[in-house]
Design goal:
Blueprint: E1 2-7, H1 18-26, E2 29-32, H2 38-41, E3 49-52, H3 62-81, E4 84-89, H4 99-109, E5 112-116, H5 121-128, E6 142-146, H6 164-170, E7 173-177, H7 183-192, E8 200-205, E9 213-218, E10 231-235
Parallel strand pairs: 1-4, 1-5, 2-3, 2-4, 6-7
Antiparallel strand pairs: 7-10, 8-9, 8-10
Helix pairs in contact: 3-4, 6-7
Bound molecules: S-adenosylmethionine (SAM).
């Protein structure tokens, strides 16, 4: 009996790993997140028990923590009785996916586990839209950061806020996940820290799916981007490579 934490990739089922697809096809129980697309879920056995354990966007709150406790309980309950349990997570389980916390729960319960990495939206979504994370002469580093603040635009005071000043100083590419609600505050913080208001920005919503939308703008224009989650925000010169910023939506550039 093993619980497999499988990265589902950013949405397109073609980006699921072979190992992930094989496990999904043989799982007795599948516990899946909100961002896992129905195209990926369709690979599960038709008699598998599939449970939606998704949290709603912006619920990184004490109430959401209770939900995470429920997920832990379900993992242990099914991990003790089913032969193959797949815990299916959007992107990669270890990139803002609370995969580490779930492994700790399984360890404490003495349940065998395995990680199957996935293509994270942080690199996969800009990549599929034609935006390279690094580019010789333009960006020699890439930093993946959460844009989620306890209250959008305000410091949570909990010491977990990204250090936007330090991030601005790297001069490299910033890939911001969960940042749409706080986009105005993030743009202001980066400009205050010295990044030019004309720094190129790309916002990609529903990346790698048929609903993908891409908007190319600047830090000054980021607050006006009218796209909801899930979206990846790319900040830096690579976002200005207009010859590449395209996707199934045909926009960008
Ligand atoms: C809780 S994080 C989980 C990240 C995930 N573990 C990963 O590696 O992609 C959720 C955030 O990932 C980003 N995201 C995930 N899938 C996406 C997609 N298909 N298109 C755009 N952004 C996506 C969004 O920023 C979303 O708010």
């Amino acid at each position: 009996m093993t619980v497999y934490l499988v990265g589902a990739g950013p949405g397109d089922p073609g980006l699921l790993t072979l190992r992930g697809a094989e496990l999904l096809r043989s799982a007795d129980v599948v516990l899946y997140d909100r961002l896992v697309t129905s195209d990926v879920l369709r690979l599960a056995r038709c008699d598998a028990l599939c449970i939606d354990v998704g949290k709603r966007p912006g619920t990184d709150s004490p109430a959401a923590d209770h939900r995470q406790d429920d997920i832990g309980r379900l993992l242990v309950e099914h991990g003790r009785k089913a032969a193959i349990v797949v815990r299916l997570k959007g992107g990669d389980p270890f990139v803002f996916g609370r995969g580490g916390e779930e492994i700790e729960i399984l360890e404490r319960a003495g349940i065998a586990w395995e990680i199957v990495p996935g293509v994270s939206s942080a690199l996969g979504v800009p990549g599929a839209a034609g935006i390279p994370a690094t580019y010789r002469g333009l960006a020699s580093s890439v930093t993946i950061v959460t844009g989620q603040t306890r209250h959008a635009g305000e410091s949570s005071g909990c010491g977990h806020e990204p250090d936007w000043e330090a991030l601005a100083r790297t001069g490299g590419t910033l890939v911001i996940l969960m940042g749409m609600a706080s986009r105005a505050a993030i743009a202001a913080a980066l400009v205050d820290a010295g990044r030019g208001p004309d720094t190129p920005v790309a916002v990609i919503q529903n990346g790698t799916t048929a609903a993908q939308r891409t908007v190319c703008t600047t830090l000054a224009g980021l607050p006006d981007v009218d796209l909801g989650p899930p979206a990846v925000i790319v900040v830096g010169p690579v976002a200005g490579l207009g010859w590449r910023a395209r996707g199934p939506d045909g926009s960008g550039g």
